[in-house]
């Protein structure tokens, strides 16, 4: 339970474990249910194109997301993968929604074990591939 009284739905944890352990998903978009009492899965996808993920982030609505972020290591070390937690809270979203998402984030974040990096996005420049790449490579050194 979060400070806002919002709970994390079991399906939210199941989807995360499917991504982390089963590699069934590339990303998960989370939202609050209609009564704003539970964090639920809005969508899962196995689409590997990062731009497709970004297109799922609405311009005027808050969301949470998990992305299995793959990137190349320099010097021929190959690919690495980090699980990234996104809090998407665009400047154009309603203030009330931003407040509820901000106060509910910790409940979801604590429930998801194995997240390597957190990204807070208020506009698309903050969640662009290069910005996230910079964040995950800094946390891995």
UniProtKB/TrEMBL annotation:
The keyword Ion transport does not apply. It is found in: Cytoplasm, Cytoskeleton; Nucleus matrix. GO terms for biological process: actin filament depolymerization. CDD domains: ADF_cofilin_like (cd11286). Residues 5-137 form the ADF-H domain. Pfam families: Cofilin_ADF. Belongs to the actin-binding proteins ADF family. PANTHER family: COFILIN-RELATED. This is Cofilin. It comes from Scheffersomyces stipitis (strain ATCC 58785 / CBS 6054 / NBRC 10063 / NRRL Y-11545).
């Amino acid at each position: 339970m979060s400070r806002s009284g919002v709970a994390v739905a079991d399906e939210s944890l199941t989807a995360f474990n499917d991504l982390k352990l089963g590699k069934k998903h590339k990303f998960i978009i989370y939202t609050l249910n209609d009564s704003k009492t539970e964090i639920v899965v809005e969508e899962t996808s196995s689409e590997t194109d990062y731009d497709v993920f970004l297109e799922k982030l609405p311009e005027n609505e808050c969301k949470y997301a998990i992305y299995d972020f793959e990137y190349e290591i320099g010097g021929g070390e190959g690919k690495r993968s980090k699980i990234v937690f996104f809090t998407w809270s665009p400047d154009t979203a309603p203030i009330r929604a931003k407040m509820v998402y901000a106060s509910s984030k910790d409940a979801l974040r604590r429930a998801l074990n194995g997240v390597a990096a957190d990204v807070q996005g208020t506009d698309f420049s903050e969640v662009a591939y290069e910005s996230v790449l910079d964040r995950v490579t800094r946390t891995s050194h």
